[in-house]
Design goal:
This protein is an alpha/beta fold. The chain is built from ten helices and nine strands.
């Protein structure tokens, strides 16, 4: 699938929203769809369909779950962000004939950690996904290992576990924009500052979590935006600039992100940044 540019959005201030709900909606409406090629590639590779029982870690606003559900999979998502979970519930709302049943048919959303998804009345999961890409900021995989350790016992033996990460910086145009955070303050060097992606980032996480790597792939995921304002709003919704905002102020971060984006603005005003993401398939013991 070739990603399309996102729709235009109202030209309001694109600084990091103080309101968590607005920020979550920026993620859902602008940024999350940039990862659709990644979701599609993984689901095709693993032949996701009827009989697949997915546990999505850090499911966010639920787009990946929705796509798996559309293939016939039974999906459960966990996340600790209430605002994103609210939007996920909207996306996965049951059809009118199922209204009043809570989750959509075959879909379940749980606020909290993986352990909250345990349900002895249901069959064990046979696929775990962690689609939030790692490898571009210091410490961005620290919480993933314990989450995987908690999730693995909920899955059948030999189930695939999907991890995602940024590709090499030279193949990710967005890397130059992400470096803005580190330039703003030295404090970011120990608080989420940008770092270069390492070749074995995903394998390292899998090893620490006690799961066995069993194949990988790369996917082109261009970031395309209707205009500069949408690009800034989308990027700030990722959380990758939060430490920079805390260390300086939203206006300064927005200004520098816009400057970094200028080389990627095309003649028609759209913004286009080619990127490559990597995924790893591991197996539960």
């Amino acid at each position: 699938m070739t990603p399309t540019l996102v729709p235009h959005h109202p030209r309001t201030s694109s600084a990091l929203p103080a309101d968590a709900g607005r920020r979550a909606r920026d993620w859902a409406e602008i940024q999350e769809r940039m990862l659709v090629p990644l979701y599609e590639a993984v689901y095709a590779h693993l032949e996701v369909g009827a009989g697949t029982r997915v546990l999505g870690l850090g499911c966010g606003t639920g787009l990946a779950l929705l796509m798996a559900s559309a293939r016939g999979a039974s999906v459960t998502g966990v996340d600790t962000d209430p605002a994103r979970m609210e939007l996920a519930r909207e996306r996965l709302a049951p059809a009118p004939e199922h209204a009043g049943s809570g989750d959509a048919p075959g879909a379940r959303l749980v606020e909290g950690g993986p352990e909250e998804a345990a349900d002895p009345r249901r069959p064990r999961f046979n696929m775990i996904t962690a689609f939030q890409p790692i490898g571009c900021t210091t410490g961005d995989s620290d919480g993933l290992v314990p989450a995987l350790e908690a999730a693995v016992p909920l899955a059948e033996r030999g189930s695939p576990v999907v991890l995602a990460g940024w590709g090499p910086p030279e193949r990710c145009a967005t890397s130059a924009v992400l470096r803005v955070a580190s330039r703003l303050t030295e404090r970011l060097r120990s608080d989420g500052g940008w770092r270069q992606t390492l070749r074995d980032d995903l394998e390292d996480v899998a090893t620490r979590a006690g799961i066995r790597p069993d194949g990988s792939g790369r996917v082109s995921c261009p970031f395309g935006y209707a205009d500069l304002d949408s690009a800034v709003r989308g990027l700030l919704s990722t959380g990758l600039f939060d430490a920079a905002v805390r260390a300086t102020d939203p206006a300064q971060v927005e200004k520098e992100v816009k400057e970094a984006l200028h080389p990627h603005v095309r003649a028609d005003g759209t913004v286009w940044m080619p990127n490559v993401f990597r995924y790893l398939i591991a197996r539960t013991p």
